[in-house]
Amino acid sequence: MGKQWILGTAAVVIAAAGAFFVVGGSQAAPQTTFVLLDGSKETTAGLKGKVALVNFWATSCVTCVAEMPKMVSTYDKYHAKGYEHIGVAMSYDPPSYVVNYAETRKLPFKVAIDNTGAVAQAWGEVRLTPTSYLVNRKGEIVKRYVGEPDFAELHRLIEKLLAES
């Protein structure tokens, strides 16, 4: 009985904290809904079957702005092969700034605004930008990057994941 109580309590604490559940050694991406700039919605479930990078960023983040051309280049290189990218603007980022940035830089990938902070909370209480999560075709988080990724390493990992069935 004691072991069951501890396991049950741990499960409740993990669920309440919005932590990731470990499935087969990998962390399942949290089930979230991204509200895109055009008002449409994308869900984590909608990414299944694709390799995806969920990138939390802000227009006021110097590193985010510096890495954005590389994010665009990565998207352009792999999108036709089944790669998706969702740029999630942090809740403190004014929506008009995000729209202006996305339009003037002609960002080719999906951009969402996390108005309430719920998406950042679900993905592990993201507070530092940039923070990115690489998700495989099964919807599992393969790698988390805090700060600018090593793009050569990221590209190798994307290619490996795209080659998996």
Short description:
It contains five helices and nine strands, in the order αβββββαβαβαββα. With 165 residues, it is of the alpha+beta class. The strands form two sheets. Strands 1-2-9-8-5-6-7 form a seven-stranded mixed beta sheet. A two-stranded antiparallel ribbon has the order 3-4.
Write the layout of secondary structure elements.
Layout: H1 2-17, E1 22-23, E2 26-28, E3 33-35, E4 41-43, E5 51-57, H2 62-78, E6 83-89, H3 95-104, E7 110-113, H4 118-122, E8 131-135, E9 140-146, H5 151-163
Parallel strand pairs: 5-6, 6-7
Antiparallel strand pairs: 1-2, 2-9, 3-4, 5-8, 8-9
Identify the notable features of this structure and list them briefly.
single chain, 165 residues, alpha+beta, Glutaredoxin, seven-stranded mixed beta sheet, two-stranded antiparallel ribbon, 5 helices, globular, disordered N terminus, Redoxin, oxidoreductase activity, signal, Thioredoxin_domain
Verbal overview:
The chain has one domain: Glutaredoxin (3-Layer(aba) Sandwich). The longest helix is centred in the middle third of the chain and has 17 residues. Strands 1-2-9-8-5-6-7 form a 7-stranded mixed beta sheet. With 165 residues, it is of the alpha+beta class. The chain has 5 helices and 9 strands. It is globular. Strand 3 and strand 4 form a beta hairpin. The chain is 37% helix and 25% strand. The N and C termini lie far apart (42 Å).
